[in-house]
Every structure is written in C-alpha cells, then in structure tokens.
Amino acid sequence: MRAWLKKVWYVLWALNAYVGKTLSLDTPQQVTVLITYYHPARMNHIGLQVRNILKCAFVKKVVVSNHNPDVRIEDKANIQDQRVVYINQPARRACGYRWQIANALDAEYLVVVDDDILLFPSQLKALFQHLILAPQVPHGFSGTVYVGNDQFEFRQRENIEVHYLCEVYAVTKDHVEKYFEMERLIVERDETLRDTVERYGDFIVISQTGAQNPKIHKVSRLFRANTFKTPGVANHKDEEFDSSILQVSRAVERIRSQRLAQPVDAGTAATTQLDLGEQPAA
Q1: Is 266 part of a structural domain of the chain?
Q2: Mind giving me the DSSP string for 81-145?
Q3: CB environment 146-162: b (16+ within 10 A), e (fewer)
Q4: How many Å apart are CA 50 and CA 64, to the nearest integer?
C-alpha cells in the first residue's frame, strides 16, 4: 500500500473508532476478541483498536493481554468499559501463550488478533459470520499454502482453503481444546518442540484443529501497523522462523498421518481427517 494511501486509511480507521456506527447481527451468538501485545512498538494503537472492536454489538468481551511486564497495558489503552478486560502477565511470554489465555476464557466463539493487525468493525463482523456458518473449521483473512520444496506461499483477499492461517484466527471452543491435544501429541514425540510451538508455531497448530483445512475470506484490505515487517519486532523476521515452522508443520503432518492410519467409524471419519495435501516430509 502506498504511503499516502496508508495514511488516509489510518485516519479513516481512527475516526471510525469514535464516530463509526455500531454494527450488530441478527443472531444470538456473541464472540470474545483476544489481542495479545508483546512489544512496546506495537502498543501505540491499542486504544483505537479496542474502540473499533467495541463498535460491534455482538462482541461480548475484548480481552487485552500484555506479555511485556515493563508496561502497564491499561495506561496504553486508556479505555474503561465493562466489556474490556486487561491482563498484565508477570513474565514475558511468547506468542503461543495466548492459547492458554483463550482456554481460560472458555468462550464458545473466539477471534484472536495479532498485535500488528488493525481491524475495521465491518471486517470483524464478516469474519464472525463465516465462523457461525461453518464452525467446524477455523477462519481468517490471510494464510499460507504449502507449495512443495519446503516453501510456503502467502495468500490473502481470496475465498479459499489454506493450510495455515496468519494474523487473525476465528475459532470455537472446540478448536482451542484440540489445540492442546495437538500440542501434547507434538511434545510427547519431541520435547524440544515445546518452546518452538510457543514461540513460532502456534498458528500452525491452531490452524489444523478443524475437521478440514481452515478458510480465508476476501474482505477489504487488511490494515497492518508499520512494524509488521520490522526485524526485532515481527516474529517472521527472526532468523530461525522458517526452520521452526517447518519443524512444527512436519510434526503436525506426522500426527495427521497417524490419525489417517487408524480405523475410524464412517460417521466420524469426516471430523478426524486433516487434509493438508502434500506436506514437508516427516
């Protein structure tokens, strides 16, 4: 996105946080939104992000979890609302810890947002609608597809299945529970992957907790903070990121292969097979 257009987009997003209309759904379901922050460089937009999310009447709760003990997250957000919950972690935690928080929330429907993604209420509404219509799989706006030779292709602004979601994750309580089942199986086989999953590979694990591959959906362009490609801030810019996600994806594929090898009843086959397509060799 060109610099001038991004500035205009940001102004519109910031204005919407204050003067935008409230969006609702003709459905009784409500969603909890979880955002976890790690680096101070990404905390400048917290207040506007939360205000935009609160424009959605179907949002039951917004949970803002701070994984940097040097910062008090309430001071950054400066919002007091009965639907907003702040959590200051006593120690630094990696990305995967957010699923521990998600599990404790015990929400039937959950949208987890990376801290460099700035959502419009209309985007959140569209995503939640997709989750309600097809709760058997996780949903998002962007993801990666394995294309062979240990390579992944980033995809966005399409209505397609992917292997792994990125940036935004719309899931159910069942998906969160299966995340920990999958993580347990991974660690039982290779204890060294525990930290790898928590630091880099949690998005791979949560993506493969559905009955089928996750889906991404075409919406207006996702707005990303300026730090989304900044080395030292963005995880995917770490030197060990690529090798780490390959390790985790191979571990997930081994579990998938074992499940496919086990006899299942015809009635449950559709919910136990994880179709990853061609994947890295285990």
Answers
A1: no
A2: -TTEEEEE-SS---GGGHHHHHHHHT-SEEEEE-TTEE--HHHHHHHHHHHHH-TTS-EESEEEE
A3: beeeeebeebbeeeebb
A4: 9
Question: What amino acid is encoded at 76 in this protein?
Answer: K
Q: Express each pLDDT in 236-250 by its tens digit.
A: 778 899 999 999 999
DSSP string computed for 202-232: HHHHHHT-SSS--EE---SPPEE-GGGG-TT
Q: Residue 109's beta-bridge partner residues?
A: 172
DSSP 137-168: S-EESEEEEEEETTEEEEEESS-EE-SEEESE
In the chain, how many domains are there?
1
* Distance separating alpha carbons of residues 73 and 163, to the nearest angstrom: 33
- For helices 173-189 and 98-105, angle between their N-to-C axes, nearest 10 degrees: 140
Quote the domain boundaries for residue 251. 3-259
Residues in contact with 93: Cβ distance below 8 Å, sequence separation at least 6, in sequence order = 67, 198
Helix (H/G/I), strand (E/B), else coil: 249: helix
In a domain, 273, yes or no: no
| Rounded Cα gap, residues 96 and 203, in angstroms | 8
Asked, for residue 160, whether it belongs to a domain, the answer is: yes
Give the angle subtended at the CA of 182 by the CAs of 117 and 145, to the nearest 5°: 50
Asked if 170 and 142 count as a contact pair (C-beta separation under 8 A), the reply is no
Q: How far apart are CA 222 and CA 127, in angstroms?
A: 12
Does the residue 270 lie in any domain?
no
- Global pTM reads 0.90
Give dist(CA 174, CA 106) in Å, integer.
10
Could you read off the pLDDT of 133-190 as tens digits, one per residue?
999 999 999 999 999 898 999 999 999 999 999 999 999 999 999 999 999 999 999 9
DSSP letter at 28? Answer: S
CATH code at 69? 3.90.550.10
Q: How far apart are CA 121 and CA 131, in angstroms?
A: 15
